[in-house]
Amino acid sequence: MLPYQTLQEAELELGRELSCAEKLWFDYSRDKSDYYLYCHTILFLFVIFSIVPLPVVFMEIKKAHTILKYKIQPKVKISTQGIFKCYKDVMITFCLVVGPLQLVSYPSVQMVGIRTGLPLPSGWEMFMQLLVYFLVEDYTNYWIHRWLHCKWGYDKIHSVHHEYAAPIGFAAPYAHWAEVLILGIPSFLGPAMVPGHMITFWSWIILRQMEAIETHSGYDFPWTPTKYIPFYGGAEYHDYHHYVGGQSQSNFASVFTYCDYIYGTDKGYRYQKHYLEKLREAGTGNVDGIDSKSE
């Protein structure tokens, strides 16, 4: 809760006039506890999981030809019933695991020093902190993901996420409850190392989940802005990981591809991509959905 009762008190304390964003934040947060503000994270996650995948899912249900040509595994069809079963299962995990975890994890947010007061962070400060969060999460997630593909980790935990060999947006958070808890560690590690404002924390949660939904969408759209991000994996890159499934020792990256390149765990993907390009150059018919699962 802000320690100021009026805008004038806040401006006097800061020694300047508040920006428009700061005035909006003041009006909204001044009579709300820090814990109440933190609990907004649950609402953001629910909205993202429910709304962001809908445009692509809706067009797939309608079999819109304008986007089907961008489907990475066009031979794989998921029924409408199967799509909404996935959403239902995700919401069950959300209600039983994600939501309660958010409710009880506030002491860790307090401990690392994520703040809710004024001033608000500058755009540059937010950008740099978010970059750190993405890099820290990406590197630690890579190694946890590799561990989850060992025999015990895959059989006991990670196989649930791989039930979708051709992923859809709703399947991004579809996982065993233990995986949800385990992968919460790298997600919080960046904010713990470089704590910022609650708005930066919310931005991180929103962007990371939107990235995961795009990566699991099953579609490789040429116009997506993420194609201009250096070393960004994207839907095609991660789709290969699901396509290979339990055999996969390739494409463990959650966001960026540099770890797979450095540690040599993208060789299967690069081999298959080169192989498909050769087939296309040779004029071979439809090469989509090829069963070759080379590692």
UniProtKB/TrEMBL annotation:
One of its GO terms (biological process) is lipid biosynthetic process. Keywords: Membrane, Transmembrane, Transmembrane helix. Its main location: membrane. It comes from the Eukaryota. InterPro entries: Fatty_acid_hydroxylase (IPR006694), Sterol_Desaturase_Related (IPR050307). Residues 131-265 form the Fatty acid hydroxylase domain. GO terms for cellular component: membrane. Belongs to the sterol desaturase family. This is Fatty acid hydroxylase domain-containing protein. It comes from Papaver atlanticum.
